[in-house]
Structures are given as structure tokens and as C-alpha cells.
Amino acid sequence: MGYVITIIGSGITQMQTRYLQRQQRLLLALQEKDVENLLVFNYENIFYLTGYSGNAAYLIVSTQGLKLITDYRYFERAKSESNGCEVICRDRDTESLGACIKRFLPYEKTGFESLAVNYGVWLSIANELASYDISPLDGCIEMLRMVKDEFEVTSIKKAAAIADLALADLLTQVSKGVTELDLATELDYKMKKLGSDGVSFDTILLFAERSALPHGKPGERKLNYGDLLLIDFGAVVNGYRSDMTRTYVYGEPNKQQQQMYDAVLASQTKSLHSLKAGVDCQQLNQISLDVLAQSGFEQYAGKGLGHGVGLALHEVPFINPVTDYRLEVGNIITIEPGVYIPDFGGIRIEDDVLITNDGFEFITHAPKSFVIN
């Protein structure tokens, strides 16, 4: 198999070098799988490989070079943003996507991202490529994305710093009678004002018994004295996301609220103390569950301890009872144990951390105080 690895010369910028190196690593990964070409449909993967941040894009990765297919709406943007690839402007009125791909796809063994393409779209492409040796190949780029480079780490740290500042400011505005939606909207606005590209995901901000909804939507519920207040949110810098949760009680906690909080904090602390390269993610998940079991809350525990975070909110490695990953230096993961009691409330504490040669480093830094007044 004749893989051509681009030589990176002194005239190449640092940014261009970053994308060329990623492309080279992917070609080597494909070689190990005995595949020459890959059709990439996942937008985050296209961004990771080329720097193009728009939509309506399809990427052909091959030993003969990368071809990014788009249309007139995004052609100039793609040319200005993309690195290490030729940008093709397809006329949607005269050429099908499958026909365009066929024009540029070498007649060799090909993989495609089956989990990232619409079934109907794929059928039309597959009809054009009926004579090709083509089969699903998912997760190849995601495994490369699992270990972050310096640019990615710096971007996520900046996003987390924005989130830390926005939360600190928001907490000064918490008062009786404010609604979930009011605070969530204000938090999103603060992150944008501080330089976030957007929100990492739809902000989760819930009061009282609604805090037991792990991914609930903010509504018109008003804050009262003694309510739990759960806030799960993140900022975005250069396409990279942060993800943090803090839970508070407005006023004085009752006995059960305090017990829940102490159990979740102990679970997170024990899990963090176990973090280092080489740790099995299933075992790490069990460490968290064991602490919650000792506290009597195991039946109310969330089903996973955490996940990787980067261009996507949830990416490998996943930390749960069924996935098979070991932590590596350069992973950025969340550690987020939670307890959710229906009709009473939920508590989650979540931090982003970087796995290092010496263990781990916090990326999120907001204080974990429980009581706010």
C-alpha cells in the first residue's frame, strides 16, 4: 500500500502543520486497517482534519490527497478556512453528491462514516459507488481526537476560564423569585460577553425537585428558600467545549440535601484521587459507585462517571460500566458523579480535567461551596 506522507517544510505555518500532522496520523491509522480511502461525514471530524467549520461538507481522505466537497454557499469560506485539502464546489443542480464523490474517489478499498450520514443520502451515494469495495468504518478519527494537542488543551482551558468567570458573576444575581429561565439566559449572555463562541450545549439550570432531571430544560419555576439549584453549562473557544456542573442550596440545606451533597463530593474526590494514565475507565466508574453505595445513594446514582470532551460535548474516552478504555496522557475528561431522587432533587458535581504524566490537572476551577444566600 503506497502511502504518501507530506513533508512539512519551513514555509508551512504552525496551524497548517497541525492539520497536516492530523491527516498523516489518520492515513497511518487507515493503513493499519487495510483501507486506502475514507469518506468523512461528521462535521467535527472534518473540522479536526481541515479547520473548516461550516456545514454542507463531505471529505474524501485518500493517499492521493484530501478533497473537501461543498457548494456555492460555503465554497469561499471553505477555501479560506481549510488546510491540506483541495476544495471542490459541486453544482447541486447538475451533479449528485454520489457522482461528485465518484469523480474524486480513487478506485481502492474505502471506508465510510456510517453513523454520521443520513440513510437516504447514503443510498444515493452508494448507488454511484456500487462497483467500489466500500464498507462502514466508524470511530477511526474519534480515536485520534481522544488525545488532545497543545492547541486543543489551550482552547478548552480558555473556554473553562470563561465559564468560571460567568458563573461567579451569575451567583451574585441569585435571589428569591428568579426563574430558572432567567438565570440560564443570563448565564449564556455572560459567557458570550466574555468571549465564548457560543454555548457548549443547552444550559441546564434547575431548581428544587426539578434538579433530579439529569438533562432537564430550564423553565418558569421560581427559586424559593431551601431549594436546590443545579447548573450544568459550558463555553466554546475555537470550536472546543468546556463542561461543568455545580449544585447549590439557596439558604440552609436540610439533612437529606447535605447528605446527598457530601456523598457526591466524596465520590468525586475519591475518583479524582484515582486519576492517572493507564487507569481502566470501568474500574474508575466503580470507584465512584462504591462511595455512593457506602452512603446509601447507589440506587439513585447516574449511570456513568464521565466522558471525554473536546470538539464534541461527549466523546471518547467514556467512563461507565460497559466501555473499554484506559486513560492516556492528553485525555480531557469530565468527572461528574450525581445522585437524582425523583420528586426531591438531584446533586451533580462536575469538573473537566487533563490527564498528565503526573496524574491530572484541573481545567475547571469554580469553587464547590454548597450554600448560597
Automatic annotation (TrEMBL):
Keyword flag Protease: yes
Entries under InterPro entries matching the protein: Creatin/AminoP/Spt16_N, Creatinase/aminopeptidase-like, Creatinase_N, Pept_M24, Pept_M24_MAP, Peptidase_M24B
GO terms assigned for molecular function: aminopeptidase activity; metalloexopeptidase activity
Domain Creatinase N-terminal: 22-147
Classification via Pfam families: Creatinase_N, Peptidase_M24
Entry keyword set: Aminopeptidase, Hydrolase, Protease
Residue ranges occupied by any Peptidase M24 domain in the UniProt entry: 156-357
Origin superkingdom: Bacteria
Protein name per Swiss-Prot or TrEMBL: Aminopeptidase YpdF (MP-, MA-, MS-,AP-,NP-specific)
Species, as recorded: Pseudoalteromonas phenolica
Upper classification of the organism: Bacteria, Pseudomonadati, Pseudomonadota, Gammaproteobacteria, Alteromonadales
